[in-house]
Write a structure and sequence with these properties.
single chain, 125 residues, mainly beta, four-stranded antiparallel sheet, 1 helix, 9 strands, disordered N terminus
Amino acid sequence: MIRRAVFLIVAGVALAACSGPRPSGGSGVEGHVWVGPMCPVVQPGMECPDAPLEADLAIEDPSGRTIARTRSGPDGTYRIALHPGTYVMVPQSPPAGLPFADRLPFAVGEEAWTALDIVYDSGIR
């Protein structure tokens, strides 16, 4: 009887720890973060691709409340699990202001990953 009571308590605590507003991991937003231009003068025939960027990113819900934060990896990739709904990606800029990127609204579908690449402006002209 005591073993059963202890089992039920432990099982209840484990289930409570697993419940909550977290998504199952089957939906969210993912992509790459880039910065460019990387060359002060781009000439025909000369390649000057954007570069991957490690950047701090925030996600806001429709009311403007920050609900998630992450940092893209050295290769610029990021992935954030989210419930289906509408959100705004808020790329964070360093105190100096460069590089910078615009806020991007996006939607996440049921059991789907939304692809969203973010391009920071390097300020190089």
